[in-house]
Amino acid sequence: MSATEDVAKDYYDYPDWNMENAVPTKVPVEVIPPCDPTADDRLYHICISAISLVVMLTLAFLARRMKLADGQKRVPGLLSPVNFLDHTQHKGLAVAVFGVLFCKLFGLVIAPNPLPFTTDQANKQYWIIVSLFYYPVLYFPLLACGTLRNPVGYVLGSLLSWAHFGVLVWQKADCPKTPEIYKYYSLLASLPQICCLAFLSFQYPLLLFKGLKRTEKTTAGEDLSSSYYNDYVKNILKKKKASKTSTSTEKPTLVERITDAVKSYIYTPEEVFRFPLKLAVSGVVSFTALYQMALVFVASVVPTLQIIRQGVNEDIAFLLAGFNVVLSEDRAEVVRIVVHYMWCVEVCYLSAITLSCSVNLVMLMRSMILHRSNLKGLYRGDIYNVYNCQRNIRPSRPALVCWMGFTSFQSAHICLGMLIQTIVFFLCLLIAVFLIIIPIFHAQNLMLFKVLGNMWPFWLLLFSVVVVQHVATRFCFIKKCTGTLDNRGSLFLLTYLLFPVNVLIGVVLGAWRLVITALFNIVHLGRMD
To answer: Is the pTM here over 0.90, yes or no?
Structure first.
């Protein structure tokens, strides 16, 4: 034993190590210099702001002329860029503009200059507040161009969307790498914005072509005469054939119940039924928020973990020895163990992000299914089953305030929920991997199992007391024939004797209830139905 200790002492001799490894190895780190695209962002915003102002003045003049014309009394004004209550209009324009706006606002937190017109860092918080109003105004004409349903508006929308799309692609092609978080983060974060602008660049010319071919509606008054409402009413009033499950009095089997439960979380489109524009925008913005949050989590942590894992060398053996942790007498083996453990941490982190994205997608589909069910119930007049009470449906101040902020709240809850879910899932996976899976796989360091093994009398006591109470209640304290109390003296005695143990059972159940409630609320945090 002493000889082994001498070998270990000589092996971790620090003077020897300092002579052999005078210069520690360093992992080369790629330095990304700041990049200034040839399409200067400040000049671009000055030009595009002026162009947007001209477009808005042109649209205002055009709207005034259309309102003064005969038969055009219901042309919407420019202060209402989109009718959120119209189910028949093309939802793509509004969805794409909201997607562009959300992507731009999401990047304000980490952007060095919130406003492209100034580089003042002393008052950055004030410029962030100003930018919260600047970008909605900047992208307002993109949405307003489709309001009038006029060829002139479609032409202006095409030119404006082409300008935004072309300059953004130009800037990302000039500077694909940036020093923000990760070298390709800026490029990857702009992909949803590029997709939305590309859709607008394609959709406006398509609407112009349809308008010239007289296949696009020119007035908002034609919406109510659309065949959509007639088809939907026919579909609701149509008599459905009675299914076998509805006619039979038997309870559904376990397989049928599981199948129904799974189907209730998978959204499938229905013919004729259309979601309101507000819900369509909320769904796309929520999906974009999931992408942006997942990208931030991956780009901010995974490259750093990979750099640390690649930089692990034999020095880690001496660092661990300073804390009296000797993983192996072979330094190369110590390096392999540490690298493997760090790889496990990386896998747990990526798995937590993937699980969080999957949970939020499932919850989003569940919300859409419930929204559809509630809307169909309201359309039928089935108010009681929707609200669980009889009430009158009319506008109210709280309802309008909630309706105005619904999409914003949905995206904010998605972001916050994904942050909390990722942290919780990551910690749970770390505990499962390092305290359960790896110890079982290597048959060592079974600390958790030793603790649970030492506590077996406690768990056996709790289990036995619960079983005794249930058995005694069923066979001793209730008469089978009359259903009244029996052996009251024994019941009172058992209640008194088991009081201390029931306190412990209550503590365990309270902790279990706390964990289940917290997990349930964390998983469902992103739902707004």
So the answer is: no
